[in-house]
Design a protein that fits this description.
- Helix 2 packs across helix 3 and helix 4 packs antiparallel against helix 5.
- The mean pLDDT is about 80.
- The chain is mostly helical and about 180 residues long.
Length: about 180
C-alpha cells in the first residue's frame, strides 16, 4: 500500500525552516527521502526557498541600514547643536570682552568662530567673484592692438591704463557709440 503525504504542509515547513529535505523526511517518518527530494525539485521548492532567503536578507539589510542612518542623523544633529552652542558662546564672550583691556579673543579667532557657525548652518564661508567677457563674431576682424589690450585687461589685478571699458569699442574699426 502506498503512503500519501501532505505535500502542502511539507512544503510550507521546508520553506519556513532550516531543515534539509533529509531532516524533513525523517521528522515526518518518510522512509525514502529521495522521493521527497524528487518531488521538491520538480515543484521548485529549492528555488522558492532561495528567493525567500534572499528577500529576507534584503529586508534585514534594509532595516539595519535605516537604523544606522537614523542613529547617525541623531548623532549629527546633536553634534551640530553642540557646535552651534560653542560658536554662540565664543561670540558672546567676544562681545563681553571687547570692552576689557585684557581682551583674550582676537579678531582673527572671532572670524574663525563665525565661519564655523556659518559652515554649521550650511551658509557659505567665503565668496568668489567671476568676471567674463563674451564676444560674438570673428576675432579675426578685431585689430591686434585691441586684442592685446583686452588680454591685458582680463588678467587678475590688471586694468586698462587710463581707459574705461567704454573706450575699448572705439579701437574696433567701424564700431559705433551707444
Amino acid at each position: 500500500m502506498r503512503t500519501v503525504h501532505d505535500y502542502v504542509t511539507l512544503e510550507r515547513e521546508y520553506l519556513n525552516s532550516k531543515l534539509s529535505i533529509r531532516e524533513l523526511a525523517k521528522k515526518h517518518n518518510i522512509k525514502s527521502y529521495s522521493t521527497l527530494a524528487s518531488y521538491a525539485r520538480s515543484h521548485g521548492w529549492y528555488d522558492r526557498r532561495d528567493r525567500i532567503k534572499e528577500r529576507t536578507k534584503e529586508k534585514v539589510i534594509e532595516r539595519v541600514s535605516e537604523q544606522v542612518a537614523e542613529a547617525e542623523t541623531d548623532e549629527l544633529m546633536q553634534f551640530r547643536a553642540d557646535a552651534l552652542a560653542v560658536a554662540r558662546a565664543a561670540i558672546y564672550k567676544y562681545a563681553q570682552q571687547i570692552q576689557d583691556p585684557m581682551f583674550t579673543i582676537s579678531t582673527a579667532e572671532l572670524v574663525k568662530v563665525v565661519n564655523v557657525g556659518l559652515l554649521i548652518l550650511g551658509e557659505p564661508t567665503s565668496r568668489t567673484e567671476e568676471r567674463r567677457l563674451e564676444l560674438s563674431g570673428s576675432i579675426g576682424e578685431l585689430p591686434p592692438e585691441f586684442l592685446r589690450r583686452l588680454v591685458e585687461a582680463s588678467r587678475p589685478g590688471q586694468a586698462l591704463a587710463g581707459r574705461t571699458s567704454a573706450a575699448l569699442p572705439a579701437l574696433v574699426a567701424g564700431a559705433r557709440e551707444n
